[in-house]
Amino acid sequence: MDVPELFRQHEVAISARARSAGIVQHAGDRGGDREEILREFLAKHLPAKFGVTKGEVVTKSGAHSRAADVLIYDVVNCPVLYRDETTVLPIEGVYGIIEVKSTLSKAELQDATSKVADFKRLAPRDLSVIRTRDYATVHRPSRPFGIVFGFDLADNSLESLLGNWHAANIAIHDVNYVANLVVVLGAGVLLVEHVDWRLGHIGPLLDTDAYVNLMLTHQKRAEAGEPSLDVQTTEVIENIGDNTFGRFVVYLLMMLEQLRLGTPDLGQYIDPNLPLTIHRES
Fold this sequence. Notes:
This protein is 37% helix and 26% strand. It contains seven helices and 13 strands.
């Protein structure tokens, strides 16, 4: 089987369905139809341990996110708090979100990156306890991801979109909360590239924890008057045309496999005075 060609055909089929959805006149209906196209594909093709839905996340303190177009969550360990046309999940069980846009203009990119930042700000960083048959250990959950997914460009280009993304990231200020990936079908992706001059390595920097830790190391070395790392990060374009969807799926899987979530403690949602649950690893 020619896997690259298979994903090119997936991209053609998804783009065709999205164009058909554009026949609907009401903008909200068009957006919802296109979100469903992506959710349906991911639900069918991601490993079964990853759940795919739309909805909101909630924290133990009762804070809610805005509605997300795509939530990817731990289908094995995450309780579903509410499910109807939309779903409500405890944030500890959510890997990340994807914000979907029919056309990715500057304004739509700003809206999507703002939603990603708001979602990431809710993510807990408190330690939890994990017990196995032999020992108990503490665990700090991974920071979640956020992706912006556009079915098409507006009256712009990937180059102008890169400038808009850079400006949005500066406005957000903290790399904890920036989008990990920007995708435009049929055009390409925007991402942060990691260059290690000492090792001669260049590659995508998709993991939020790795990005944050690298920036903190740079900061600490500068404050201590130590030499800077021979490592550079930069926002780049991958102009890959009709190979974009396959690259998106690969990058999504890379992010998912790097993340280690906590297990939602439903007792803490119901009554914070209840004792913490010690979770057992299988």
